[in-house]
Write a structure and sequence with these properties.
The complex is a heterodimer of chains A (about 170) and B (about 400). By secondary structure, chain A is an all-alpha fold. Chain A has 7 helices and no strands. Chain A folds into 2 domains: about 80 residues, Four Helix Bundle (Hemerythrin (Met), subunit A) (Up-down Bundle), CATH 1.20.120; about 40 residues. The chains are: A mainly alpha (about 170), B mainly alpha (about 400).
Chain lengths: ~170, ~400
């Protein structure tokens, strides 16, 4: 291979390590707030990786939607319910063994896939068409307009459902 | 040594710019506290700070020293890591946001390098989106501070803050879509350039006239996002002691304070850039005599400070105030003397002028409006601002569509 450690590569490894550490910490932390914070670290690290690929718009939206709105809601709910430290029952301890097995299986599968297609993976993939806002919007509103509209319809149904649940007594 | 300097020139310039901007922002923050106390005092028929230095001008220095030397106790039962992380997060994010603001269109040529005013290069394509991303993260500072303090008042403050942020962020983002549609870009520099399409229109070419609804929504939502009066429910002192920063003392408290003031500056920058033409002069481009307005303003202000200084009560004031006035008047004289400097100074002058104006509006509103009740706050955000900003987007896009279809261009 003989890759030089260029600046983008260094940044990639830092962000990737951050994402992995955040993900592990998300599972290992005992307190819900700490877990939520770890998840935020993962989101921000992923946004950095998108930025490295030249997908500026996706990176910004990743932080605004996931890092900002959704995680704020998570933290808000955890704080509101005053969720305490996670409790370990005997079943949850037993679940560790099959979980570990699954992790090993998944890692092996991913490694095998990468090894099989190593020669076909391009080393640098600038996001090209998908990077600019114009590219994304023309994709959404021309090529994938029906799936996009269906998704918004789904979200509308979910919003209505939430309102019905919240206002059950009044209706 | 020389080769090191030339190969790393970009890096060195950026580091120097960061240090300079930090220094300027922190100084402006300090004097913003003085400005706010003075203006609010005069609104309420008081004098405000006037003991430390002439007109209380050394009060920020005294406050800073006090913040540094006060005892900094950590309350029992706090979540230590998050308790220390929260003020850091708030300050770091507020400072990062201001690094994305361009302060002038033309670079200074120094040692063979083009040095732009502002840290980020002016061609950041997602300028405004990146800013929203940073402000979206900014809520964690306040929320986590409230949660980690192990105090009911703090927790309530943190909860209020996160609910408020979620409610107003939507309206804030929607309200600028009109501006983005008119400029066709997320780039802050291009947004300003789009407002200069008709150089002879001056102030009437800015976004404020077609986007006045968007401006209203944006400014109100931005005040709510920065937790300022009349939306300062997270720290409502009459109900929550001090809200989210009840348990913070000394410099950790100062960090929240600096973060809040820095966000105020960022919002003022955004308002002037997106709706008030940024660094564009309010006069038509052919009125070249208006290029002496910055000099005139500086000289008049300097002369006024000198005149005021000679009549000041204390000897210290009689000594120091004329010197300050002389510096301002001298700056104005330099701009008149050198036409090149004068041309360069136009853009930053108008931008700073507008930023100062919006900072004044911030303080003015705090001195005028009473705090909202919590349900009023929520109803205002969801039932008024959000529909208004969405209507603004729809109307703007239809007008642009009509222009494209039947327009003369």
């Amino acid at each position: 291979m003989g890759h030089e450690m260029t600046a983008p590569l260094v940044v990639f490894f830092v962000l990737a390590a951050l994402a992995v550490i955040g993900a592990i910490s998300l599972i290992r932390q005992k307190h819900p707030i700490h877990s939520a914070l770890s998840l935020i670290v993962v989101m921000v690290a992923l946004a950095g990786l998108y930025l490295l690929l030249g997908a500026e718009f996706v990176a910004a939206v990743q932080i605004i939607v996931y890092g900002g709105a959704i995680m704020v809601l998570f933290v808000f709910v955890i704080m509101l319910l005053n969720a305490g430290v996670e409790e370990h029952t005997s079943i949850s301890k037993m679940a560790g063994a099959p979980g570990l097995l699954l992790v090993v299986a998944l890692a092996a599968f991913v490694a095998a896939t990468i090894a099989r297609s190593a020669d076909r993976i391009q080393t640098t993939s600038q996001a090209g068409e998908m990077s600019s806002t114009l590219g994304i919007s023309s994709m959404i509103f021309k090529e994938f307009v029906y799936p996009f509209e269906l998704t918004s319809f789904l979200i509308l149904v979910a919003v209505l459902g939430a309102i019905v649940l919240a206002q059950r007594e009044k209706i | 040594m020389n080769s090191f300097l030339s190969t790393n020139a970009e890096l060195i310039i950026t580091v120097v710019k960061i240090a300079l901007l930090l220094f300027i922002v922190l100084t402006v923050n300090a004097y913003l506290t003085w400005f706010e106390r003075k203006v609010v005092a005069h609104i309420q028929s008081r004098w405000g700070p006037h003991r430390v230095g002439p007109h209380g001008l050394l009060q920020p220095l005294a406050d800073g020293v006090k913040f540094l030397f006060k005892e900094d106790p950590t309350p029992a039962g706090v979540d230590k890591f998050i308790y220390y992380l929260a003020p850091l997060l708030a300050l770091a994010l507020a400072m990062t946001a201001i690094a994305l603001i361009p302060f002038g269109p033309d670079p200074i040529r120094l040692f063979g390098h083009d040095i732009y005013l502002g840290i980020a290069p002016p061609d950041v394509n997602i300028g405004i989106l990146a800013l929203f991303a940073i402000t979206a993260m900014g809520v964690y500072g306040v929320t986590l501070a409230g949660w980690s303090s192990n105090n009911k008042y703090s927790l309530l403050g943190g909860l209020r803050s996160s609910a408020q942020m979620i409610s107003y962020e939507l309206a804030m983002t929607m309200s600028v879509v009109g501006v983005l549609l008119m400029a066709g870009s997320f780039n802050l520099k291009k947004i300003i350039e789009a407002q200069a399409h008709h150089p002879e229109w001056g102030i009437f070419g800015w976004n404020i006239l077609p986007q006045i609804l968007g401006f209203f929504c944006f400014f109100v939502a931005a005040i709510a996002e920065t937790n300022r009066a009349p939306f300062d429910l997270p720290e409502a002192e009459s109900e929550l002691v001090a809200g989210f920063h009840t348990e913070y003392a000394s410099f950790k408290f100062a960090m929240f304070f600096i973060a809040e003031y820095t966000s105020m500056i960022t919002v003022s920058c955004l308002c002037s850039i997106m709706f008030f033409g940024g660094w564009l002069s309010p006069f038509p481009a052919s009125w070249t005599f208006t290029h002496y307005v910055p000099s005139a303003v500086l000289i008049l202000f300097g002369l006024w400070v000198i005149w005021d200084g000679f009549r000041y009560e204390t000897i210290f004031g009689r000594m120091i105030l004329p010197v300050i006035g002389f510096v301002f008047a001298g700056l104005g004289a330099v701009f008149i003397a050198s036409s090149r400097v004068n041309e360069f100074i136009q853009a930053p002058f108008w931008l700073l002028f507008k930023i100062l104006f919006f900072l004044f509006v911030y303080v003015w509103m705090r001195g005028t409006l009473p705090r909202f009740r919590y349900d009023q706050l929520m109803a205002f955000g969801w039932k008024l601002l959000l529909p208004l900003s969405i209507a603004n987007v729809i109307v703007t896009s239809f007008v642009i569509l009509a222009k494209m279809t039947w327009g003369t261009k």
